[in-house]
Write a structure and sequence with these properties.
The complex is a heterodimer of chains A (about 300) and B (about 425). Chain A has about 300 residues and is an alpha+beta fold. Chain A is built from 7 helices and 15 strands. In chain A, the strands form 4 sheets. Chain A has a 7-stranded antiparallel β-sheet, with helices on one face. In chain A, strands 3-5-4 form a 3-stranded antiparallel β-sheet. Chain A has a 3-stranded antiparallel β-sheet with strand order 9-8-15, with no helix packed on it. In chain A, α1 packs antiparallel against α5 and α5 runs antiparallel to α6. The longest helix of chain A has 22 residues. Chain B is an alpha/beta fold. Chain B is about 40% helix and about 20% strand. Chain B is built from 15 helices and 16 strands. In chain B, α1 packs across α8, α6 packs parallel to α7 and α11 crosses α14. The longest helix of chain B has 20 residues. Classes of the chains: A alpha+beta (about 300), B alpha/beta (about 425). At the A-B interface, α1, α2 and β3 of A face α3 and α4 of B.
């Protein structure tokens, strides 16, 4: 049994499994990775008043808020993702979610739920144009944390490890077998993220909304994305749920996925190795969580 | 509490006390500094704490990190990335000689390396923020204190409690008599971790794990306990006269000599005792300090704080606004700064924790002091006294023998 190490952060449980013969080294390396996740939590968590994002949410309408380079780069990536996904992924809907809860009506709501945010690269600041804007990095934060944690493992000389945040975002260093529903994938130095409109569902509505009009998405869509970058996998799995539910999965979206390093070819069950993106296959992916297959 | 403090408390009355509780200086909670002339800062040491420091300094408007230094190439690279635009150095001497624009230096290296770096930075005329504990031997501490005393620049000790608004608020309550006579002081730092850092070679691993070497590190009691015992010294305005300690290896039996579970007891002249426990085997209740008095107790947990009142404690008018949190059979009044404003806006829950990290307040305080020529929240001499107690606590744990704390030794620092 491989040693497993864990920490509670970002409202979920992160776990690191290190495949290293030396238990003392494995523990130290895993703790270094978990420490990066805790640092990430301290900056990005929606559950902490002293998080940097909480500070931005409080002050960025009144004045520009200075960010550290790492958080600034993450918000730049969020802006690019918003453009690439036609607005299906948008971290500036936090204010809307706070006002309407996680289960808004299926019908459109008056007023745009997303108001965007401005970044000033020279001053390294973020600013909101609307008083109600709140950033919610729930759709990318876990992937970002896994990315930083993997860096820590590599720095420690670890070549084979599996990391996950709440089992819905997974990152493999080396080769690992991961099951999503009935499908077993081999991840090799790649990330997997699974999103579902059926998560935390109530009365036929899931917890995901379409950021463009605030409508809750009907249940029944589960999307899994495999990509090199865990944060791209996480953001795109959410966006694909939105785009699929709204009937917008098309060639342009596939091209956007190619541009970020994911292959936009739809996969067959028999050919998991060639698969990079799985979209809209509820019959394949019945669970929003990956089952980790460990030796 | 001194008679003067008690008179001050009684004179304040309920209305005055409410004002003190509910409306602390907003400048304290949300420090603002001029972005027009930022202070050029160098950070020396880019390990765990250095990384955290760089993250905080990057968000402080009055500071600009222009140089970073670490002997480790990987850490140096990561620090350079975290402080974009900063120059990276492998030697602090080279940094000090080449970066003339640097006005302030933050020292976050292993404790046993503080002496040479702080002395060189002070000799170069820099403002210095030195992470706590300040030194690992009394000899180093005396040398550093002498240099800090004669320095014309700001020399701050990184005992974070002293700049933390929740702790400042709690201390003002204590000074106003909210606890009355203190009965017990207890602090703990419990976190399940090996406290090890992996290295690329056995030699590098030994260097990175200096804190597990009893000859270089002050152990759990010094590296963590010093910060918490300092809270007690600051709140009470005095220092203990004896310290006892013991330690054991309960979980991490991996060849280390340093105990992973430690207990320390310091005793003040009047018999008041402060206990501290640290363990790397269990995480329950994390890091906190509890000051229990005749009328109430504080439970302070760095980003959060609560007051638990005795049933016979007088009720103050402000309590109608207070946010309460249940803890098993007790109910804690949350120590919230700016509570009146938050209550009026229906946002009391949002203000339950600090809006910035404890480290942020400590660094922002230093940047402000260095920029304006003011005094830092924790002077070097205050920090040196708490470090001296930690050095003796470490000796008590290592030898199993009670150590006397000579008041003259502390006065000289």
């Amino acid at each position: 049994m491989l040693p497993r190490f864990a920490v509670h952060a970002m409202g979920t449980r992160f776990e690191v499994v290190v495949d290293d013969g030396d238990l003392v080294r494995a523990r130290a390396a895993a703790e270094g990775a978990l420490e990066r996740i805790e640092e990430c939590d301290a900056r990005l968590s929606a559950f902490r008043s002293d998080a940097l994002i909480a500070r931005a949410n409080r002050e960025a309408f009144a004045r520009p808020v200075k960010l550290d380079p790492e958080t600034f780069e993450l918000l730049e990536a969020c802006q690019r993702l918003r453009d690439d996904t036609r607005g299906a992924f948008d971290v500036s809907v936090g204010g809307f979610l706070r006002a309407h809860g996680f289960h808004p009506p299926l019908a459109p709501i008056a007023g745009a739920p997303s108001s965007g945010f401005q970044l000033d690269r020279t001053a390294r600041t973020v600013r909101f144009a609307s008083a109600g804007t709140r950033l919610d990095l729930g759709g990318i934060g876990k992937g970002h944390a896994l990315h930083l944690a993997a860096d820590a493992l590599r720095e420690a000389g670890v070549e084979k490890a599996l990391l996950h945040g709440g089992t819905s975002s997974v990152l493999a260093l080396g080769a690992w077998r991961v099951a999503v529903g009935a499908c077993v994938l081999e991840l090799r130095d790649a990330a997997l993220s699974v999103s579902s409109t059926s998560g935390r569902a109530r009365a036929g509505r899931g917890h995901l909304i379409d950021p463009r009009d605030g409508r809750a998405l009907p249940t029944g869509t589960t999307c899994a994305v495999v990509a090199r970058s865990p944060r791209l996998a996480e953001a795109w799995s959410t966006a694909l749920c939105v785009l699929d539910a709204r009937g917008e999965l098309d060639g342009a979206i596939e091209a956007a996925l190619v541009a970020v390093g994911a292959t936009a070819r739809r996969a067959s069950v028999d050919d998991p190795d060639s698969a990079r993106v799985f979209g809209a296959f509820p019959e394949l992916f019945t669970s929003a969580h990956a089952a980790l297959t460990l030796p | 509490m001194t008679p003067h403090d008690r008179r001050e408390f009684l004179a304040l009355g309920a209305a005055g006390f409410a004002a003190a509780f509910l409306e602390p200086d907003p400048a304290l909670l949300f420090p603002r500094m001029s972005a027009e002339t930022p202070l050029d800062v160098a950070v020396i040491g880019a390990g765990r704490q250095g990384r955290a420091i760089l993250g905080e300094l990057a968000t402080i408007e009055g500071a600009r990190v222009v140089a970073v230094c670490d002997v480790d190439e990987a850490r140096r690279g990561a620090a350079e990335k975290r402080a974009s635009g900063a120059k990276a150095y492998a030697s602090h001497a080279e940094l000090l000689s080449k970066e003339a624009s640097v006005a302030a230096v933050v020292v976050a290296t292993p404790t046993h390396l503080h002496r040479a770096i702080v002395l060189d930075a002070l000799a170069a005329g820099k403002h210095v923020f030195c992470e706590a504990p300040l030194a690992h031997t009394l000899e180093d501490l005396a040398a550093l204190s002498a240099a800090a005393r004669s320095a014309k620049t700001v020399v701050a000790a990184g005992f974070q409690g002293r700049a933390n608004p929740i702790y400042l608020l709690a201390r003002s309550f204590h000074k106003a008599g909210a606890l009355r006579e203190l009965a017990t002081l207890h602090a703990q730092n419990h976190k399940k971790t090996s406290w090890r850092t992996p290295g690329s070679s056995p030699e590098r691993e030994k260097e990175l794990n200096w804190h597990l070497d009893p000859t270089l590190s002050l152990g759990l009691e010094g590296e963590f306990g010093a910060h918490q015992l300092d809270v007690f010294h600051w709140f009470t305005g005095r220092h203990p006269v004896f310290v006892r300690g013991s330690g054991a290896l309960r979980l991490h039996k991996d060849g280390r000599a340093m105990p992973d579970t430690v207990r320390v007891e310091t005793t003040f002249e009047d018999g008041l005792a402060a206990t501290w426990s640290g363990t790397l085997a269990n995480s329950l209740r994390g890091r906190r300090e509890i000051l229990a008095g005749e009328m109430a107790a504080f439970d302070l947990a760095w980003t959060h704080g609560w007051m638990f009142k005795e049933a016979d404690a007088p009720t103050a008018g402000w309590e109608v606004y207070a946010n309460r949190q249940p803890f098993h059979t007790e109910q804690g009044i949350t120590l919230i700064a700016d509570a009146t404003k938050l209550a009026a806006q229906g946002k009391l829950q949002e203000g339950v924790g600090l809006p910035f990290t404890s480290l942020y307040y400590s660094l922002a305080d230093f940047v402000k002091a260095a920029s304006s020529g003011g005094k830092p929240a924790c002077s070097f001499s205050d920090g040196a006294r708490s470090t001296a107690v930690a050095i003796l606590a470490h000796a008590a744990v290592a030898t199993g023998k009670e150590q006397a704390i000579d008041p003259k030794l502390l006065e000289a620092l």
